[in-house]
Amino acid sequence: MTGTRTNRLLKLVRHNPLEFCLASIIVLVTVVAFLPGVPNDFVHYDDADYVTANPAVQGGFTPSGIRWAFRAVHAATWQPVTWVSHMVDWELYGGWAPGHHLTSLLIHVLSSVLLFVFLERLTGKPFRSALVALLFAVHPLRLESVAWVASRKDVLSTLFLMVTILAYAAWTRGRNPKSYLIALLAFAAGLMSKPMLVTVPALLLLLDYWPLKRVSGAVFEGVASRQTVGSLVLEKAPFAFLSAGSMYAAYMAQKSGAALASSAQLPLALRLDNAAVSFFAYVWKTLWPANLAVFYPHPTDTLPTAPPPNPLRNGGG
User: Fold this and answer.
1) Torsions phi, psi of 72, nearest 5?
2) pTM for the whole thing?
3) How many CA atoms lie within 13 A of 27 on its CB side?
4) Does position 10 have pLDDT exceeding 90, yes or no?
């Protein structure tokens, strides 16, 4: 079995050495960028709830642990795949924090490589694709997800997102039901890692336009098969169904964990205003990642018109 896998790898390298070299560079740069964080210990912000003071996780990867992961609403979340991931880590490393950090780093490295493969194979632009994947891999906004054990849900859901779009691209090219099923299962696993993937159905529609070029009436050359927007939307129905279920599960988990502010505390208008401000603040920090902080508290009755300042500046807590 090992010999067969080695032969496949060698065949892949010979078939596309440039892709292999660029992927290797992405791996190397990402590891060098994040490796200093691996020796760090756990922190006192959520790591206890997720790992260091969680008896279910510390029970290891067991049938009873898996049942707990899928049944429990813990830390105001329902994220069974993330809990299983932490259980596997505890089985491997126990309370040795660097092992948990290393797993998160390896997951992030794999996600970055898969992003490169997706872009390169669909655009045919290896250097541009490598640059985009590299920017994603080492962007400062990724630091929290990789270096914070309790943020395993971020890197894990991102990995399943990459598998989803790769399988979906394969489905659109070959119309193989197996590829569609893999995309759907990976998406479900991603939602069970962190429900932030609920917007994936919309993302798939964007991918249909570019780089998949499936939209009928669009000005594309060399594309034999195009579909109407209606048929493309209908194709995403199973994904949308999973998104709706995940949103409901997330809402109920937050509600049961008393993590939702009442309408008296935060009126709907203020929530919508905050959503708009947060959206533009996040876009701004993507373009100019300065004044980053671990936690941005809700301003409650006042909303800034500019990205929030760094609370660690000027001696702030």
Assistant:
1) -85, 145
2) 0.89
3) 12
4) no
The sign one gets for the Cα dihedral 120, 122, 123, 124 is: positive
pLDDT tens digit string along 165-211?
A: 999 999 999 889 999 999 999 999 999 999 999 999 999 999 999 99
Tens-place pLDDT, residues 12-26: 667 789 999 999 999
- Following CA atoms 117, 121, 126, 132 in sequence, which dihedral angle do they give, to the nearest 10 degrees? -50
The dihedral sign for the CA sequence 300, 304, 305, 308: negative
**pLDDT at residue 5, as a whole number:** 57
What are the extents of the domains in the chain? 2-260, 269-315
In angstroms, the CA 259 to CA 251 distance is 9
**Helix pair angle (80-93, 97-123), 10° resolution:** 130
Amino acid at 208: D
Number of Cβ within 10 Å of residue 157's Cβ equals 24
What is the C-alpha to C-alpha distance for residues 147 and 102, in angstroms, rounded to an integer?
9
* Cα angle value 168/252/238 (rounded, 5°): 20
Using CA atoms, how far apart are residues 304 and 6, in angstroms rounded to an integer? Answer: 55
Residue partners of 115: CB distance under 8 A and separation at least 6: 132, 133, 136, 162
The CA distances from residue 1 to 10, 32, 175, in Å, are 14, 31, 29
Residue 315 has a CB neighbour count (10 Å cut-off) of 5
